[in-house]
Design goal:
There is one protein chain. The chain is mainly beta and about 180 residues long. The protein has a single domain, classed as Pnp Oxidase, Chain A (Roll). Helices cover about 10% and strands about 40% of the residues.
């Protein structure tokens, strides 16, 4: 049992700015979709990525039955879709959206970019699944290329974020020699 407070942990990792995606897959001829910011590229060769649904969610319970899925990176003007697919939609009518096929999986039309994947592996990850997908196809949306972002529990965009210089160190220190190793992307 850990002594880390889960609320404090969530607030701490929430300081990391993330993009917002909608993961979509098909089970029993029905499209299922969820909002996720737990998505990352994993490998270039082979092209792998991962996302992490909670085990208690519908996606977490159904992902083992899917053969593939899409990761749809949302635009800053798609906040309503993020809220809708996260289960927080309060309006009477659903926001407009449409899924179109790409490599046998549903792709959210209008996204900034989409990646169609086959399910490569699924691993335990505490109270989440680590779902690894092998990328089979990609779709890049058209201008404007402005992503929806999430930071400190709120939606944001890159144009409205403010920045300031990092604080100076409070005490003088003796520099330690550091050797850098850079890897090209």
């Amino acid at each position: 049992m850990t002594s880390i407070d889960s609320k404090a942990y969530r607030q701490t990792v929430g300081r990391f700015l993330t993009g917002v995606t909608v993961i979509a897959f098909e089970v029993d001829n029905e499209v299922k979709a969820m909002t996720a910011n737990s998505f990352t590229s994993l490998s270039l060769d082979p092209p792998l990525l991962l996302f992490c649904p909670a085990k208690t969610t519908r996606t977490g319970q159904l992902i083992h039955r899917a053969t593939g899925f899409s990761v749809n990176i949302l635009r800053e003007d798609q906040q309503a879709l993020s809220t809708f697919f996260a289960g927080g939609w309060k309006q009477a009518a659903d926001p407009p959206y449409r899924f179109v096929p790409i490599e046998g999986v549903p792709r959210l039309e209008g996204s900034l970019a989409s990646l169609a994947c086959s399910v490569h592996q699924i691993h335990e990850g505490g109270d989440h699944w680590i779902v690894i997908g092998e990328v089979k196809a990609m779709h890049q949306g058209i201008e404007p290329l402005r992503p929806l972002a999430f930071h400190l529990g709120r939606y944001t965009n890159l144009q409205t974020m403010t920045s300031s210089p990092a604080p100076d160190l409070l005490e003088p220190f003796e520099p330690v020699p550091v050797h850098y190793h850079y890897e090209s992307w």
